[in-house]
């Protein structure tokens, strides 16, 4: 049976620079091109071998592996041949990532939006965000390097707005051995829930003044001058792992992506890069017959990619921006590392399927937080980035960019509990200056006290039960049987 054996195919993965087009063998860790400083995509030079297998057969293989008992194939490496077919079974790290559900929005939410839509619940990954997909691949490749080179110590390092650090620290703790984790966070810009994760996993956590972009410059300097394993999305192996999002969406949709439109927060642009790259692979190998439409979403407080695509196509120029505070913390990036990848893949997407298959929409901070609250009041577990996607869908509907007949798939990148602090700020009207958010009464919710501790002390148990019940009857407007 196919699900009972590890794949025999091995690829020839090489780094392709999107700047000068030079290629480098995938036998070492590279982050940027040594020649021009451009970013890389990893491409399999044996890819033509995969084309010998018809798309129908690939669908059968991946569907059969969905129930695999082989540990290495239970997560993202179910799609082994399409991700990183250079690692051996013993290298693969599986901590429960992948296979996150695609949840149809509640009927009430769909009626409100006027659109068929679903959330991909990435918060159900082990560290509670989509970052685990890329980390599983990056750490699997790192294990291969450690084994081949006999390294006795490897420092992994990343800059983060929260989720990357949580994921990197978790996987480093799981692999253990020679791997030690260091994470750099912008001081005061990470929620307490997110900060607790790398600390709890035993990582060395360093806080720097400034924003994510400042931390990123430091880790880039260290990666360029010292032997450290950089785990931000500049690491092309992470992009490969995150392509599994596209493969899973296609599989959940029974390999039919026609009439589907995906909304993805841009942030550092690694995720939207991976999603487009994954769908292009599926299309090239005949696994799907049509690409979905892709919408990147950005907050007005950090919108460099939106600004780029708002310009005349003949005169576009990318300019980093100074970010302002955002409840969608992963969006607070003014100079996305993966923007050159986005530009390259968006061009290929539209060449393959036509104009309108890649778009970027802009939303306000107020819309982001209230869309998160709206989703969660309708039974979902959306983070602020998931709220950003719902806000993007509402904005796209308003602008006539999405047809009612299409199904929208929204990327809830992390679990709602990671961002409960922003929910509390909304309910308490305590946002610091710069967020541009004024809470509205219809979204407010606070605990209601019916009896004081002093009142309880003056009552026996029977009187307390009767009095508290009467207060609840009044509060809730209950009627007798």
Ordered list of secondary-structure elements with their pairings:
Blueprint: E1 13-17, E2 23-25, E3 40-44, H1 47-50, H2 55-65, H3 80-83, E4 102-104, H4 107-113, E5 116-121, H5 131-149, E6 154-159, H6 163-175, E7 179-186, H7 192-200, E8 204-208, H8 212-225, E9 228-230, H9 236-242, H10 244-252, E10 260-265, H11 270-284, E11 293-299, H12 304-310, H13 339-353, E12 358-363, H14 365-376, H15 384-398, E13 407-412, H16 420-428, H17 453-457, H18 461-476
Parallel strand pairs: 5-13, 6-7, 6-9, 7-8, 10-11, 10-13, 11-12
Antiparallel strand pairs: 1-2, 1-3, 4-5
Describe this structure in words.
The chain has 481 residues and is of the alpha/beta class. Among the domains are: 102-126 and 239-441, Rossmann fold (3-Layer(aba) Sandwich); 450-481, no CATH class. It is built from 18 helices and 13 strands. It has helices spanning 47-50, 55-65, 80-83, 107-113, 131-149, 163-175, 192-200, 212-225, 236-242, 244-252, 270-284, 304-310, 339-353, 365-376, 384-398, 420-428, 453-457, 461-476; strands at 13-17, 23-25, 40-44, 102-104, 116-121, 154-159, 179-186, 204-208, 228-230, 260-265, 293-299, 358-363, 407-412. A six-stranded mixed β-sheet has the order 4-5-13-10-11-12, sandwiched between helices. It has a four-stranded parallel β-sheet with strand order 8-7-6-9. Strands 2-1-3 form a three-stranded antiparallel β-sheet. It is globular and about 75 Å long. The termini are far apart.
